[in-house]
Amino acid sequence: MASNSISSQELSSADTNDLPLLVAEDVIKIYKTGKIETQALRGVSFKVNLGEKLFLIGPSGSGKTTLVNIVAGMGKPTSGKVFWKDLSKDITRSSLEEIIRARRSFAGVIFQDSKLLQHLTVKENIELAGFYAKIPQGIVKQRSEFLLKFMDIWDKRNKKEDTLSGGEKKRAAIATTLITNPRILIGDEPTGDLDIVTAESILNLFDKISDELGIALCIVTHSQQVAARADRILEMREGIIIGQHGGRIHLRNLEESRLLEMDRQNRLAIPKTILKTLDNPKHFSISTEKRKIILEPIYDESLITQSKKDIITCMICGKMVQNTEKFCNHCGAAITKKREKK
Ligand SMILES: Nc1ncnc2c1ncn2[C@@H]1O[C@H](COP(=O)(O)OP(=O)(O)O)[C@@H](O)[C@H]1O
Ligand SMILES: [Mg+2]
Hints:
The chain is 26% helix and 25% strand. It folds into 2 domains: 8-260, Rossmann fold, CATH 3.40.50; 281-342, no CATH class. It has a 7-stranded mixed β-sheet with strand order 5-6-7-3-8-9-10, with helices on both faces. The protein has a 3-stranded antiparallel β-sheet with strand order 2-1-4, covered by helices on one side. Strands 11-12 form a two-stranded antiparallel ribbon. The chain is an alpha/beta fold and 342 residues long. It has helices at residues 8-12, 64-71, 96-106, 122-132, 137-150, 166-178, 196-213, 272-277, 301-304; strands at residues 22-33, 36-48, 53-57, 79-84, 107-111, 184-188, 216-220, 232-237, 240-245, 259-260, 283-289, 292-298, 311-313, 320-322. Bound molecules: adenosine-5'-diphosphate and magnesium ion (MG). The site of magnesium ion (MG) has 3 residues, from helix 2.
């Protein structure tokens, strides 16, 4: 399992090709609306490696949009750090001008509702994006020609947005983000508004962009189709990353492929589905056995307030009972004393 624990020191050391492209460290975001506070991100750390295809999944409200906005430099976290390989400082402490300048060559950003300028043709839209990024005109012409062909919209180059299909609009919008030749494409549900067949063709295109242009992907999706394409999938729930998956997963059966990910504060989130099968315990005893961590739910509230030396484990059923008991109150076996390890 790839570790997400990269220190800022590691990043600010000499720039080598081994360094990740993007690193988020302990990102917290609290939205304040009047007196109401929403903790959208509760300490998220992750990295995207060079050329990696990383996807973010999770239910609505789990913080995906907030997270991609922050790592794309389009929103500030309440605390935490974000590093881009090209900018040798924490972007959350950079000025807007610095971020905009660095983003031109670093990241292309694509949203579900990314739009073209209606009065311009596809080609003009792409070239305008190059002009804003201050790329020399000759290079813009050359690159926009390449992108129109690469994105399979060469025939549509002189059309305006209102005559394009959903998929063609999306291809054109992606092409405008690629004119600067970014190292990473960051997207928030870019195929969410498309039908399955069109979404599939756009996802194939993301594959092609990554494989042939070497551009990394960091994309939020709800699409099962994505699952087979990812190098890695991060699963978000209630403002944290609860687990990570390799490619080839089923979004309906994430339990099968989930690897729990310890965060930088050594926190592991136990999936709610597992807690539910155990009647939602709130407390656990922890021990290790043969290089395994054993968490044993404690249901008896009186055991929680007692010191560990007053509790023993029943040798028959393995449940915890008070030291003073002669028989296990779970399985009825006579208690033979094996003290809990401290
Ligand atoms: N601008 C905002 N103001 C207040 N709360 C917000 C704002 N944006 C998002 N939230 C809240 O933050 C949480 C995470 O939202 P979001 O990042 O949009 O999640 P997702 O993209 O996974 O659906 C939600 O509870 C949402 O209501
Ligand atoms: Mg969202």
